Amino acid sequence: MTTKAFGARVARVEDERFLRGRGRYLDDLAADALHVALHRSPHAHARITDIDVEAVLDVDGVVAVYTYEDLTGAMADPLPLLIPHPDLTHGRTQYALAKDQVNYVGEAIAMVVAVDRYVAEDAAARIVVSYEFLPPVVGLDAARAADHLVHDDVPGNLAATSTQATGDAMAAISRAPHRLALDLDIERSACTPLEGRGTVAKWDTDNGRLEVWSSTQTSTGVRAAVAAKLGLDLSVVDVITPDVGGGFGVKVVHPWPEEVLVPMAAMALGRPVKFTEDRREHFISAAHERAQQQHVEVGFDDDGRILGLDVEIWHDNGAYIPYGLIVPIITTTQLLGPYKPPVYKATFHSLYTNTVIVTPYRGAGRPQGVYAMERTMDAIAAALGKDRAEVRAANFIQPDEFPYDQGLIFQDGKPLIYDSGDFPQMLDKVKALVGWDEFAAFRDEMRAEGRRVGIGLACYVEGTGVGPYEGGHIQVETTGKVKVSTGLTTQGQGHQTVFAQIVADELGVRFEDVEVVTGDTRRMPYAVGTYASRAAVMSGSAIALTARSVRRKALELAAEALEANVDDLEIRDGVVEVRGAPGAQISLGTLAVLSNPLRYAFDEASKAATQFSVGDPDKVPVPEGTSPGLESRDFYSPPRSTFASGMHAVIVETDPDTAEIRILKYAVVHDCGRLINPMIVEGQIHGGVAQGVGGALYERMVYDEHGQLLNASFMDFLMPYVTEVPETIDVDHLETPSPLNPLGIKGAGEAGVIPSAAVFASAIEDAEGIVITRMPISPSELYDLRRTHAGSDEAAVAAVEGDS
Questions:
Q1: Which domains does the chain have, with CATH numbers?
Q2: Which part of the chain is the Aldehyde oxidase/xanthine dehydrogenase a/b hammerhead domain (predicted)?
Q3: Can you give the pLDDT at residue 602?
Q4: What is the β-pairing status of strands 661-671 and 729-733?
Q5: Half-sphere exposure of residue 48, counting CA atoms within 13 Å on the CB side?
Q6: Fewer CB within 10 Å, N side or C side of the chain?
């Protein structure tokens, strides 16, 4: 079969609807619903001694008020710890409404349900909560010191300590000809989707069914959690994800407190209930990421080849840890990137603080790991006086070494084995794109004009396509249209386009005849979710397998109808044809009719499928092991994760007076296996680079010592505008197909953001001649670094003059 759609730059089918304002987001639903507002803690750490709701009960328009005392059964238990781990010895999760204590500013204490959001907000503000204040633990330094505890029963604020090693790293380092130690820091940041969290619920009293709409990345996970918490059979709960205005990881947690509280209220009140998060709520009560402190020790030879690497990481997991240890596990296992140190040891300590919880944000621990590894590579190059690209090349896994086992266990609990790649070729490509070898001459030109420029390079490997499974369902309608459904959700990635491209080729139908639905448990009740760059690998593979099953069924039906051999048939544009026999053909729509033998005929086409038209009286209309309908459902479960990879390079200019950082050139080379749609992959890269620029240069969550978030608005939390993002991003692709799935693909969703902190630190350091150990970096911080650096140089000169 000739590939027609797979690999083509097909325009996204989703875009016209969105551009015309026809999107249907959570807040567009249930105009008649009651509205929810939460009373949230203004304190980071306190015991609740009393909650007085009397002033709310008589407010006109208030329908109900709930506190922890109103929760019963499983609703009164802590929310789930979604991903347990043997090393997570002190896992703690919050209650849907705070029970005895609050542990971060923004924790939900009471819920008001009213006729509209205005009344609900005003009423929630009237609730009076009395507190006994406790000392807050803010930041990793305070958590590590453990002078105070976030949870009384968690010694040292330590949720977990975990180590993976491939040998005695410190012994290897001590024997190495050269040794270095680095202390690095990445500060807390967060994704900021255009649409915050939101939930709508409707209880059908007559039929005992619950319908929930949620702006989520995992509709099936929300469904399971709601059913468990409310004591309902899974079969009576439907969860639908409408259009979602961005997820980026923050919406993968399930359930959020509101996702169980809103359905609970809808059932109790017998009316639809809605919660939509405002922007401040998102800042103070959703999720953050990134914050880590890192200590790296490395031993290396004269060529810069690493002989031993030891990394210790302190990870801030916030006040609770519902998503387990996924982020620091990814940091310590993905840190190695495209390199092969013979001996490696990594230890992380996951610590509680009185701040918002930490869960995956696009990149999910990888930006921190890449930062540690690439800063180490730059430090080795500087120590040896070597080219930074040359040092990286000396440590690469070679193309003939795949599959390459790093000797570690990845986040999916399976061996960390890279499936394919070609890192030397990728390095050549990115150097050519950015003009690496010509940069010295460019720097000289800029210096002559009084301008200061620097170049940076960062390499990464990204685990994608994490299991355990995804599924697909395909049905060919009697009209010839093809309906496709998969359970994972969509937040703008172009799933309707790429999945249709897969089906068009696998089934032999027109791309325009394929319709894709995602995130609706009524259509696909079994699924996992959209995260970890897994949609194309997991659902794409499941859909491909399903399409092949439908194709086999169609060819068998056509062979009988056309009295031909299956091997002589082909499908083109939805029509089965007999090779070499013009006119001998039958459409998939007609085969859909034939696949469902009926008692009655409703139109001319269906006459062929009535029970009275069966020619052979001994023939069973629906043979054992088959089913009516030209449709199929199949699932894909991977043997282990696929591993995409990439390299970014950037040229920056730093203003000598204002210390502003301007991007002059940005280049990306990326390998995600076979490309389903290069245009969509490039769009993912461009969006990721924009987020990476924000994370490296602007975005930071700033807490004071009392646990108050000081920049919980877009007035204070800086994000890059289009003027700060490179107008042109030079992208090149390298395709090393994965042998682990039927399409040879790997994920691409997080690629653009992963190396950003590392590549900008490298370029700024190159421009300034000042070692960069802390990210993100703002102009004011760079300005202060310059002053500190100048002061240390002056002190060194004075010391030398004094000695002389």
A1: 32-134+197-276 (3.90.1170.50), 292-466+639-788 (3.30.365.10), 467-636 (3.30.365.10)
A2: 20-135
A3: 76
A4: parallel
A5: 24
A6: C
